[in-house]
Every structure is written in structure tokens, then in C-alpha cells.
Amino acid sequence: AEHLCASRGYTVLNDDVIRDSKILIVLAQGEPSAEFPLGRAFALYQDDDGALPYSPDDTVILPAIPLVKQLRNLHSIVPGNVPGVWMLSTEAVWVLGDEQKPFGDLSPSSLTAFCSPVAAKVAAQHGSYDLNDDLAIRSLAYREPPVDETAEAHLILGLLYLPPLISSHFLALASTNPLSRATYHGLDSGAIGLRLSLFFDIVYSTCSELEEFVRCRMAPEKIDCAHSDLLELARRVIHGKLSKFQSRA
């Protein structure tokens, strides 16, 4: 955002700065572990024969890691002439159909969230969107036991699209207290960090009332419950910026 402002002669982020810009924000999520020291986004999975995806000389990694797979998926569905901000999470990997084409009906005034229809018992292990008949997001659920396991649910995918109208408001949050604590600038300044969720702190702000949103503790492992005062203050700021917009799936 800072680079875009400077390159266009602006000091403040606004709609004009990103009116014709295409921005990709990749969130390489997944905690490092002994099995995946760089996180799951950079994991090397064995094939059916137990071989790792290396080149013949074992020095160059072939593009078979989850991060690259997700970038290829995104390349397949993003229209080439649509500006805005795409946010891609690598926490979960999804597969496209063979005939998948770029989406051509993205709303210029709504946040677009992506989901996949699955059985409710599958979605109950993850997160899901509750949709109205017009595909507007009514609410979110996280690991809730389904009333009917055979019913269809809308599994949350780690992909969001923000058109310029919304992305300018979203990117401006990075320089707003206490949201700046969730950025590297805030951490470098010595401030207490703030962990936020794309879905439970951003998407949910567009489909809930202020006090409901501020006090919600859905998916506690995904949000910063350790700093409740900061989290609630941040959510009031987020709601003030984004609640006037709608999210659609």
C-alpha cells in the first residue's frame, strides 16, 4: 500500500491509488513443527512411491508444495482485467475442477468470499458460511455439530476478493490503532502484537451487529483472546470501516 501511494504521488491511501491495481496478499499460515519446520505451506509431500518432489539432481524443488498449488489455482480463476485485492491463505489446500474457468461476475461493491459445497458433517470439522438465498453471507460457524449430517454446508475456503471500493478501506486499517499491532511496523515499534482472523475478524464484521461482533469469541484459537481489550477495540475500528459493505459467496 505504501509503495502504491508513493508511486502515484499520494501520501494517503484512497480509491484512486488502487483503482486499477491488482494486489495479491498471501498468508502462508500453519504453525512450524518438527514435521513441517517452515509450516504446511512449504511442506514436501511424498508421492505414492514414497519419493519427494525433487528434480533428478536433488537440488531444485519442483513446484509441488501447497503454496505453489494454491497460486496456480488462483491463476486459473482470477479474471485478468479485474482490479482489487486478493487474499489467499495456505492453511487449507483445495482442488479445482478440470473445467474451472475464471469468475466473471465478481461484485464491485461487495466482499467476495469463496466456499465449497460439502456435507454438513465435513464442514463441522472446519468452518462454514451460512448464506441467504441471494448468496449474501448471513453468518459464520466454526466446528459446530450439524443438525443434519447429510445436509449441504458451505465450507470456508482460504480465499477472499476485495474490490477497490472495499480494499482501500481494508488496507487503511494497517495504519490505524490498534490494527497497526497486527503489522510488521507495529511489531518493529515494540508494540504488543495482535492476532486477527480473515474470517472471524474481517468477514464477520460485514454480517453482524457491532456488539455481537465485538464480543464474539467464535474460533478462540484463531483470534487473540489473550489481549481481549485490544481485540475488542480493534473490532470496533474494523466494524466502523467495513460493516457498511456486504459479503457474498
Topology:
Blueprint: H1 2-7, H2 15-18, E1 22-27, H3 66-77, E2 84-89, E3 110-119, H4 120-123, E4 127-131, E5 137-142, E6 152-162, H5 164-172, H6 184-188, H7 198-202, H8 210-215, H9 228-242, E7 246-248
Keywords: Kinase, Transferase
GO molecular function, one term: fucokinase activity
GO biological process, one term: GDP-L-fucose salvage
Description of the molecule:
- By secondary structure, this protein is of the alpha/beta class.
- The protein has one domain.
- Helices cover 27% and strands 19% of the residues.
- It is built from nine helices and seven strands.
- Strands 1, 2, 3, 4, 5, 6 and 7 form a seven-stranded mixed beta sheet that branches.
- Strand 1, helix 3 and strand 2 form a beta-alpha-beta unit.
- The longest helix has 15 residues.
- It is globular, with a radius of gyration of 19 Å.
- The two termini are 26 Å apart.
- The relative contact order is 0.14.
- About 6% of the residues have low confidence.
- One of its GO terms (molecular function) is fucokinase activity.
- InterPro entries: GHMP_Kinase-Related.
Descriptive tags:
GHMP_Kinase-Related, 249 residues, 27% helix, seven-stranded mixed beta sheet, 9 helices, alpha/beta
Q: How would you summarize what this structure contains?
A:
Keywords: Kinase, Transferase. By secondary structure, the chain is of the alpha/beta class.
